[in-house]
Every structure is written in C-alpha cells, then in structure tokens.
Amino acid sequence: MPLPSRLYLIVDPLDTGRDPLTLAQAMLAGGARLLQLRLKHETETRRFLAHAAAIREVTAAAGATFVINDRADIAAAVRADGVHLGQDDLPIEAARRLLGPQALIGLSTHDEHQLDVAAHTSATYLSLGPIFSTTSKANPDPVVGIDRLATARQMVGRPLVAIGGITAATAASTLATGADAIAVISEIVRAPDVERATAELLESIA
Amino acid sequence: MPLPSRLYLIVDPLDTGRDPLTLAQAMLAGGARLLQLRLKHETETRRFLAHAAAIREVTAAAGATFVINDRADIAAAVRADGVHLGQDDLPIEAARRLLGPQALIGLSTHDEHQLDVAAHTSATYLSLGPIFSTTSKANPDPVVGIDRLATARQMVGRPLVAIGGITAATAASTLATGADAIAVISEIVRAPDVERATAELLESIA
Known about the structure:
By secondary structure, chain A is α/β, with parallel strands linked by helices. In chain A, 38% of the residues lie in helices and 17% in strands.
C-alpha cells in the first residue's frame, strides 16, 4: 500500500505550547494530507483521546490520513487510519491484531539492523532517521545521513519515510535519494506561520 | 460472566518503590487469583509492556485472571484477560471492539448516575468506590459509603466490585452488603509481608 502523500507532518507541539488541533488545522489548510499525532508526554488517556478525536474530525473532513503515535488503543477508539510505533512501543503484530489488515502501521528504524528486523514484520511502512541532526528529540539516535538513506532504499521494498532534521532546503533531495515521503516536525511546528510553512514545504517537493 | 474471585488485588506500587512483578508474585503466593496491573504514572509504553508481560506469565502459570488498567493496547499485546477503565479512559465500546466479546472489561463508577450510564455499556463488571476513605489516590472521589453500596446492588445486575479503603476488618461486611468482589490496593501493597497479608485477607472472607 503506497503512502497517501510525500509529506508526512507530525503534530507534536514540542515545547511551543501550541494546541495540537490548531496545529493540525493549519497543516491541513497548508495542504498537508498525512498527519500523525505525537504526544509523548501525555500521561492522561482522557486528554490524549480528546486531542485525537478532534484531529480525527478535521482530518476526515479534509480527506486526510491520520495516524496516532504509540497508542494503538487510542487509534482504534477514534478510528484513526493507523498507528506509528517506535522500537520500544507495542510489537507491530500486536498492533496489527488490534487494528486489522487495512491499518497503516509504521515502524521507526534507526539503522540497517533495525531495517532488517522490520522486514519480517507486517509494518505498512518504515521510517528511518534521523537523516540529519534534529532538535525535535531530547536524546536523538545517531544521525543516519543521506548516503545511508540511499542504501536503505535498496534494502526496503515497502514505503520508506525519511525523518529527522529535514527542511525545505533538503526535502526534495531527500525524496530524490529514495524516500517515499519525508516526515517533518520542528520545521513546521516551530514555524511562525504553520499554514504557510506547510504550503512552502509542499511547493518545494511539488 | 461471574468474576473468578471475590478478592481483586490491584498491583499498583503507589509510593512504596516495590517492583510490580514481585508484588504480583507475593499476591499469587498468598492465594490471589484475580489481579489488575495499574501503573498510572508510567509514560513509557516499553516499561509498562515489560511489567505487563512479566505478570501475564506468572498469572497464567498460577491460573489467575489478569486485567490491565487503562491500556487496552497493552492488554491486547500481552493477551491479558481484560482491561479496567476509568470514567476518563477509553470508551467501553472501543475497548470491547479491541479486545473482543470474551474480554473482562471493567468500568469504575463513583455514584448512582455513573452506575446508570454504565448499565448501557458492554462492561463485564462495574466497580464502585471509594466505599471507605482511601490513601491509594491523591484526589479520590467523594466517599460512597456502605449504605449506598447496598443501593447500588439493587441497581446493578452485573458483577459489582467494591473498592476504596477496604481492609481485613471490613472485607466480609462489604461482601455481605452485596459486592461480588472487593478490590484492594493499599492494605496489601503497603503491607510488610504482602503474601501473608493476602492470605489473611482471603481468610477473612473465606
């Protein structure tokens, strides 16, 4: 199953204090059609659920695909299109049992070994990163680099999402190196005008 | 579906610093056959999952029933028997869709209105509390009292679990008032000898 868009925006307020729904609406207004909600520090299911339900509504209205980070239970509850899992999250097969064969299930990888292992799962797509250095994570994995993205492209038959430090300046070359989509957090979430930054990023890869 | 035991022990270390698996093993050694893992402050799915998997193993070996608090995704991943949900957690029907018709799904209620609403869900059992004052929660709901447990018993056709401040001194009378099971945290988790406290509590309701 191909990804529905070459731009994968992650709704993670980071330290901006911005509201997830407001971020999502600006991304959609800017043309994004593939969003992930990522609330790493939200311990209250009720609050996570409320954000997810609100964003499910606006993504559905926009015909956009909506994925939840980590919480397969919340993805199921709001009928999101899927879940994105890290190496330490729920096993892919557990999420697949929960969400069914049609669900978009993504798995983060950070090196060739993890890509190898991921090949034996039912993940719909794999992400690889950080391609460049990133400010979105407090303790990021080592930088993968664009050369190893090219190698990864040779190894991976399913959709491959590049993530980590990608900007409008590197988006097109990252896609040209073989990524099916680029995932972006900081560049958009920290932008003064999220809608405009999204539209410009889309233009840079059009 | 009747509950498998009249004693429902909740594996929540509270502020004791005790290890969840060690607590669960002592409870099982003391004779408990219905356990719930409750880790309200665990934000890392990986760690929650590891605790849950370890306790699933020992409960299965003991023939005990094992329920996870809040996280239906983790319940599914470790093949727990069910999930216990609070008023602010996942909707019951979302958890039912995830876990299937055989899953034990519990719902916390704190007053008659919530019991009324709960009657229209597919929850397997309802809990009501706090029956007495409790030290297990930082901001507990108002005390329900034993008289209103008797009233609740008249309202509720499905299994009813009394929770909140129940000790060996009040366990038998709480059951006699109409609860199908008593759920206990502090009295056991804070006991100097968890296995012995469990055995004594079981004896008090034998």
